[in-house]
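Lab meeting, item 3. Inverse folding demo.
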């Protein structure tokens, strides 16, 4: 019997390492990532809603490198039990703070002596067979994640830890699938360096090229320009579901995208039927860009007590409540713009 797997994992090296393991062993997987706190609840609700709206009857919710509180574990199990479809639960983790939940639920496996990646690899390889390259990657991640500073793989692990924590070029809230592909690409392409002499130094020097190679298309450019082009292409492909209205003006909404001046202006040039570009951050700040069709300084003043220049302005949406699901972010902002946009900017 085949299952659709929803794999929720942490947003660090160990979290993505767990997903590299399942990506090797299985095919029908939807990858989701979360930090701790409120985001875990939102991601669980997202998974439950996806299962409810899917025609697939057999599902596995796999959680790795995240510990659940007793309340979160109880709520999750309750939602699974009341679901009309076949939903299995499995959590593989190593954080001692999850001990109470592990004691309570049989689907909650905890071992604080190994990284979550190693737990995940050992679990599935014992059933499906091992893989030398994946085993090596697991050892590298394990050495740094549980801080085995005398381990021979420790320095390599530190480099890998740094590259994943710094790989923010693709926004995981707006583009989760593309973000997963990017992280997997990095973790695949660091592996050829593992057996080189002074491997950690050689890999450290190669990180910039590894990143650039992912974003290159027909011609070379700076990493910043390549990333901007990639983001504009992703926004253009997804523009219909990311479109917002302010009065008679049409715009696109992004969330914590960064490099707003570059990406915003590049998007408006590539999509001349759009009037403005808007980015909102988790701190409620907004950045607005335009290309002469709407005065975004007036728009910023009206919706966010802000201001600036006709083509580049900012403000603050005090009523915005941060979310980790893009659709929830967009609905809030769209409602605010609807209420404020009765007069054109």
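The presenter then showed the designed sequence:
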């Amino acid at each position: 019997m085949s299952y659709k797997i929803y794999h929720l994992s942490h947003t660090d090296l160990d979290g993505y390492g767990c997903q590299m393991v399942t990506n090797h062993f299985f095919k029908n997987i939807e990858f989701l990532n979360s930090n701790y706190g409120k985001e875990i609840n939102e991601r669980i609700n997202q998974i439950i809603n996806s299962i409810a709206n899917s025609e697939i009857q057999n599902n596995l919710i796999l959680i790795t490198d995240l510990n659940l509180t007793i309340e979160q574990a109880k709520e999750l199990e309750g939602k699974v039990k009341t679901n009309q479809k076949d939903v299995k639960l499995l959590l593989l983790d190593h954080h001692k703070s999850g001990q109470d939940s592990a004691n309570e639920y049989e689907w909650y496996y905890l071992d604080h002596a190994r990284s979550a990646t190693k737990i995940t690899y050992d679990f599935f390889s014992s059933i499906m067979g091992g893989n030398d390259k994946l085993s090596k990657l697991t050892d590298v991640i394990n050495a740094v994640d549980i801080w085995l500073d005398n381990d021979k793989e420790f320095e390599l692990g530190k480099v890998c830890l740094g590259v994943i924590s710094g790989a923010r070029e693709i926004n995981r809230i707006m583009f989760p699938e593309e973000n997963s592909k990017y992280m997997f690409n990095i973790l695949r392409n660091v592996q050829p360096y593992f057996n080189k002499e002074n491997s950690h130094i050689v890999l450290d020097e190669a990180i910039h090229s590894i990143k650039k190679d992912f974003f290159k298309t027909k011609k070379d450019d700076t990493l910043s320009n390549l990333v901007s082009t990639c983001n504009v292409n992703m926004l253009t492909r997804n523009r219909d579901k990311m479109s917002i209205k302010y009065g008679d003006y049409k715009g696109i909404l992004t969330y914590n995208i960064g490099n707003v001046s570059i990406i915003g202006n590049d998007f408006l040039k590539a999509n001349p039927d759009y009037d403005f570009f808007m980015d909102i951050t988790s701190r409620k700040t907004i950045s607005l860009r335009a290309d002469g069709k709407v005065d975004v300084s007036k728009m910023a003043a009206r919706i966010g007590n802000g201001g600036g220049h006709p083509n580049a302005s900012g403000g603050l949406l005090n009523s915005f409540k941060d979310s980790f699901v893009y659709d929830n972010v967009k609905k809030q902002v769209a409602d605010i713009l609807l209420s404020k946009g009765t007069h054109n900017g």
